[in-house]
Structures are given as structure tokens and as C-alpha cells.
Design goal:
The structure is a single chain. The protein folds into 3 domains: 29-228, no CATH class; 238-328, no CATH class; 363-476, Immunoglobulin-like. Helix 1 packs across helix 4, helix 4 runs antiparallel to helix 6 and helix 6 (148-173) crosses helix 8 (193-213). Helices cover 41% and strands 19% of the residues. It is of the alpha+beta class and 480 residues long. The chain starts with 28 loop residues before the first helix and ends with a strand. The structure holds iron/sulfur cluster (SF4) (2 copies). The site of one iron/sulfur cluster has 15 residues, from helix 12 and helix 13.
């Protein structure tokens, strides 16, 4: 078996040895776009746990909160209970379909701009440049002997990375508890051990993934590059080197007759965060960050050639352009059947979820019939059944609810805590805010001709008759 060549061209073992990458800073449209996306995603991540949302005195006021202790998920005005987890599943489906949509339309835009690995790696690279200087200075520093100054620089850089990792891990746990209280507890050493452990683990993973492993995570660990291959087609936008225009390459200012536009300056390679050469064709390691487009456009401006030697393009568009045909309009990429299917599916799941959210009842009833004994014969010949009912009030205020029974005309129903003297056709309960009340109730009736008859329990909010739930059960007894 032949060995695997690493990026330096050396034959190695079964896998490539990592070659250090020192991406050069670049400016341009896509670099600025990456700045904006980075600012937006980091702001959302760090600020969200501190947003407040008034839900009244009975519910937390944190706008986005995963309350594991009480098994609730709060998202602004929406509160999800454990039995409504299908809403979270729906959101995940929407996120998945959204990713399919983005990938089939603009390739790995998620990887290039918004993936947390990309955002944090980019942040770590900027910190590195701030401390060590740009590419050339970093290369010089790498080759320099280990002096006190070099050790100090390394310590500062890794220290800064660890601080970012700490802030990242620290921000994450604020999504799981009241942020101001948790921050105070953390600073006073009063927080739960799991909180400190989580921060420790996330600090380490952020530091290792963003600072040390960087592009290795995208190339070797993430399954997405493998999956996305199946989603791209000849009309998906990808970052492409237009070889029919760039080749044959010339070198520097010595441009021979018939040379292409590429002057082999390698600017596109030097700015690439994954260290690849886009001129070798589409590659799995390309995260479509488009920084090579900015670098090449800058070079084209300098040598007076049209921009776009490296560009976002579709395979179909490239073939047409190489053959000298008119460019294919971008609208064609956005309106092809696959894209429309993803848009339709995404919108359908979203509409179904919105409809379900808008129509869900905030009152829920479950009824459990006593299994042993199924029925009890009373001294006067009547039969009594016992039920355990659970009344779930999903609103953030206490509610008075009415419980009624249908299916037995002569039935008497009472709360076991109150005794039979409190029997009534309709029982009244107060259910605390955002909680489940459990009651044991008795139902008494005449023995029936059949051993088991269907009955129904209905719970209705006293202040809103549309908020109700009905559960079917049975009244058991001896066959007369
Ligand atoms: S080849 Fe270009 S688009 Fe792909 S990762 Fe490198 S710089 Fe980004
Ligand atoms: S930046 Fe443009 S001109 Fe320079 S090597 Fe890359 S493709 Fe060629």
C-alpha cells in the first residue's frame, strides 16, 4: 500500500500529517460579510440568556430558558412542556431542511459563515494575528528560537484563547438557569458542581477545536462535508476557479503570449483557512468561505484584469461560460425544482407547527382508573369506581377548572379528600400556575346491565370554556 502524501508533498503513513496553516488577512466583500455574520452570531449567543420576557409572577422571566429542573423550554412567548416535545422535533426538522435548502442553493454557506466551528476558529485566527502579526510574521515566529519573548507571545495567545473558551462555556450554561442568579452563584462559588464542570469541558473543547484543531475538525471530524456531496448538483453555487480563463498560468509580471489571467501569486492559497488550492478543483476541504475570491479579486484589480477569476458559480454556468455562451441568471439557480421542493417542505413544516402552536389547549386532563379493585359494592347495592385524575395547567397563572362526567345519568362524583357529602355533578378545582394537580375522585352509580360502560370526563377552564379537554374512560361493575 502506498503512503499518503501530506500537504508538503512528503509521503507519510496512512494519514496526512497536519501542516501548519497561517492564513493571511484579506479584505473584500466576503471578508466583510464574514465579519457581519460573526458579529451577529456571537451577539445572539452571548446576549440571548440576558434577555428578559415578562410571563407574570408564576414563571421565569428569562426570554430563552431550558429549565431542566422543571422540564420546560421557554422561548419568548412560547412555553414547551415535555409532552409537547414534538415542537422541538419540528424545529429540528426545519433546521435540517433549511440546511438542505442552503446547501443545494449556495453550497456550504453554513460551513463558510455560520457554523460555530467556523465562527470560533475565525475569532481565534484574528486573536492570533493581533498577537503574532499576519502570516509572514507568524511564519518567522514559528522558525525563531524559543526566546523569552517568543514564550511570552505564545503564553499570551493561548491565554487569550482560553479566556474566549471560558466565556463560551460560561455563556452556554446561562441558557439552563436564571442568568443573573447563576452568574452571582458562579462568582461566589455557590453554583452546582455540574455548572463548573460544564464550563470546564466547554472551555477545553472550544480551545482545542477553535485554537488547535481548526480546519481538521471540518476536514476529518464533521460528517457534513460527506453528506453535502449528495445535495449539490450542477446548479448549486460553489466557489470555483475558472481554469479556462486562468490557464495557462504565468508567473508574476512576466506574462507570456497566450497566458491566462492567473499569475500564480498564490494569494488565494495564502488566505485559505483550510490551506487548500482552489485551482485544483472543487474539494471536500473547501468550506466555501469565499476569502480566496476576495484575494484574487484584489490581485485582478492590481493587474488590470476583470474580477471573478475565482467566483461563486454553478457547474452549469461554468460550462456555458467556458463555451462562450451567455451567463446563466442566478434566478435559475434559485427556482429549480429541488430548491422549490425544499422551500415548500420547510414552509409546510413551519405552517403545521404554527397552526399547532396557535391551537394547542393550555389545559390537559389525564384519567387513570383504579385497577385493583376495579369496583366496590356499597352497602345499598350501588357500585363505586375510583379514578386518579391529573389536571395540567400550562398557563402561567392559577386556574379554576370544572370537571364533569357524562355517560351515566345517575352518577355522583366527589373528591376523595372532601368526602361523599361534597358530591356534585361538576367538581371545581384550583390548579396552581404552570403545574399539574393530581386528585383522586370517586364515582358512584347503580349497577348496570353490562359490566362495563363507557363514560367521559371533561375538564373546562372556568374563565374560558374553549379551553377544555375530554378523556374517555369506563365505569366498571358486576353484571346484573
Ligand atoms: S478554497 Fe476558497 S472558499 Fe474554499 S475554504 Fe479556501 S478560501 Fe474558502
Ligand atoms: S489569487 Fe488569483 S491570480 Fe493569484 S494564484 Fe490565485 S487564482 Fe491565480
Amino acid at each position: 500500500m502506498s503512503g499518503h502524501a501530506d500537504r508538503t508533498g512528503k509521503e507519510g503513513g496512512l494519514y496526512a500529517r497536519r501542516a501548519d496553516i497561517f492564513p493571511r488577512a484579506v479584505d473584500g466583500f466576503f471578508r466583510r460579510l464574514k465579519w457581519y455574520v460573526m458579529a451577529a452570531t456571537l451577539a445572539v449567543y452571548y446576549v440571548t440568556p440576558w434577555l428578559r420576557w415578562d410571563r407574570g409572577p408564576y414563571a421565569p422571566d428569562q426570554a430563552v430558558l431550558v429549565d431542566l429542573a422543571h422540564r420546560r423550554f421557554y422561548f419568548f412567548g412560547i412555553e414547551i412542556w415535555p409532552h409537547e416535545f414534538y415542537f422541538v422535533a419540528g424545529l429540528l426538522v426545519m433546521a435540517g431542511v433549511g440546511l438542505f435548502l442552503v446547501t443545494s442553493t449556495v453550497g456550504r454557506a453554513w460551513c463558510g459563515y455560520a457554523c460555530p466551528q467556523t465562527v470560533w476558529t475565525d475569532l481565534f485566527l484574528h486573536i492570533e494575528r493581533f498577537i503574532d502579526g499576519d502570516r509572514n510574521a507568524q511564519l518567522r515566529l514559528k522558525k525563531a528560537p524559543w526566546t523569552t519573548a517568543k514564550i511570552a507571545r505564545r503564553a499570551v495567545k493561548h491565554g487569550a484563547w482560553i479566556v474566549v473558551g471560558l466565556l463560551t462555556g460560561g455563556a452556554w450554561i446561562f441558557y439552563f438557569a436564571d442568568a443573573p442568579t447563576l452568574l452571582s452563584d458562579l462568582l461566589n462559588g455557590q453554583a452546582a458542581t455540574v455548572a463548573y464542570a460544564t464550563i470546564g469541558v466547554l472551555t477545553a473543547t472550544t480551545y482545542v477545536f477553535g485554537g488547535l484543531m481548526r480546519e481538521q475538525v471540518c476536514i476529518y471530524m464533521c460528517p457534513w462535508p460527506r453528506i453535502q456531496g449528495a445535495m449539490l448538483d450542477e446548479r448549486s453555487l460553489i466557489v470555483t476557479y475558472k481554469d479556462w480563463r486562468g490557464e495557462p498560468r504565468s508567473h508574476g509580471t512576466k506574462r507570456s503570449e497566450g497566458a491566462g489571467d492567473c499569475i500564480d501569486c498564490k494569494a488565494c492559497v495564502q488566505v485559505c483557512p483550510t490551506g487548500i488550492d482552489i485551482r485544483d478543483g472543487a474539494q471536500m476541504a473547501c468550506i466555501t468561505c469565499a476569502l480566496c475570491i476576495d484575494a484574487c479579486d484584489e490581485m485582478m484589480d492590481k493587474i488590470g484584469k476583470p474580477r471573478g477569476l475565482i467566483d461563486y458559480a454553478t457547474l452549469e454556468g461554468c460550462e456555458a461560460e467556458a463555451a462562450g455562451a451567455a451567463p446563466i441568471p442566478i434566478a435559475r439557480t434559485l427556482t429549480r425544482p429541488r430548491t422549490l421542493f425544499y422551500v415548500g417542505l420547510w414552509a409546510l413544516v413551519g405552517l403545521v407547527m404554527m397552526f399547532a402552536l396557535g391551537n394547542r389547549t393550555r389545559l390537559d386532563l389525564t384519567v387513570g382508573h383504579d385497577r385493583n379493585p376495579l369496583w366496590v359494592r356499597m352497602s345499598d347495592g350501588d357500585v363505586r369506581n375510583a379514578y386518579t385524575i391529573k389536571l395540567r395547567n400550562m398557563e402561567s397563572r392559577p386556574r379554576v377548572v370544572l370537571l364533569s362526567l357524562d355517560g351515566m345519568a345517575d352518577a355522583r362524583m366527589w373528591d376523595s379528600a372532601d368526602g361523599e357529602s361534597a358530591a356534585a355533578p361538576v367538581l371545581r378545582f384550583t390548579v396552581p400556575a404552570d403545574s399539574v394537580a393530581q386528585r383522586r375522585i370517586y364515582v358512584r352509580g347503580k349497577a348496570q346491565a353490562e359490566a362495563s360502560v363507557p363514560v367521559g370526563f371533561t375538564v373546562t377552564a372556568a374563565d374560558d370554556h374553549k379551553a377544555s379537554d375530554r378523556v374517555e374512560s369506563r365505569f366498571e361493575g358486576p353484571e346484573e
